[in-house]
Design the sequence.
């Protein structure tokens, strides 16, 4: 793919050695890297859910009157959960497609 036209618009691209490119491709393709990424996503979602629950409890107990912080925490947790569910659905879809392949 020729990117010289794009480079002329934005200047020269930073140089990357071929060893760095190969290593990044190997790392991005390994199952361990994907699994670690997914587990990080699940842990982040869990943390956001816990923060939203803590804000709800503080608001319910009257320790906090700031509904803005409560709404933000709940929205962050909701978006993270939706993203996690979407990733899970894509993994399940990919697994089902792989299982339907004939050898």
Sequence:
């Amino acid at each position: 793919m020729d990117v010289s036209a794009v480079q002329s618009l934005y200047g020269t691209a930073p140089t990357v050695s071929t060893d760095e490119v190969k290593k990044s491709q190997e790392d991005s393709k390994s199952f361990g890297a994907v699994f670690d990424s997914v587990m990080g996503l699940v842990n982040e979602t869990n943390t956001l859910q816990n923060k939203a629950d803590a804000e709800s409890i503080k608001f319910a107990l009257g320790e906090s009157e700031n509904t803005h912080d409560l709404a933000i925490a709940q929205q962050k947790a909701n978006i993270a959960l939706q993203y996690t569910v979407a990733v899970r659905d894509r993994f399940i879809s990919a697994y089902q497609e792989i299982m339907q392949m004939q050898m």
Observations:
- Residues 30-99 form one domain.
- Residues 5-14 have pLDDT under 50 and may be disordered.
